[in-house]
Amino acid sequence: MKQITHSGIAIDLVGRVLEIETDHFARVSLVTNENMLADEKGLIHGGFTFGLADYAAMLAVNHPNVVLTAANVQYIHPVKLGDILLALARVEKKEGQQRQVAVEIRVADNTVFHGQFTCLITNKHVLS
User: Are the C-beta atoms of residues 111 and 117 closer than 8 Å to each other?
Assistant: First the structure.
């Protein structure tokens, strides 16, 4: 389980790596906190849920030059302060340097988010 992508990520914002099987699977956990609040009722902004899903997809590919090129997602249930999110990401299709990754996020036994992510392994870093 050696992480070779996105190593500079802040775990308190997008999650802690629990498991990686390179180019196959990743499991990532995120504990929601007050910095993620969208309102006074305890709603967590969906961007943090998406960030967890994106991070999990990148880890499932686990290549130093992997980038997200597209996403089709559904928010199924709201996430609230104190929720512990578990993201499960699985590489479903490989075509050359492109990967299709399915991500499901759960809070306990309830699915709160799922999406299909298109990832691309570039020949060099996107900022190079």
Answer: no
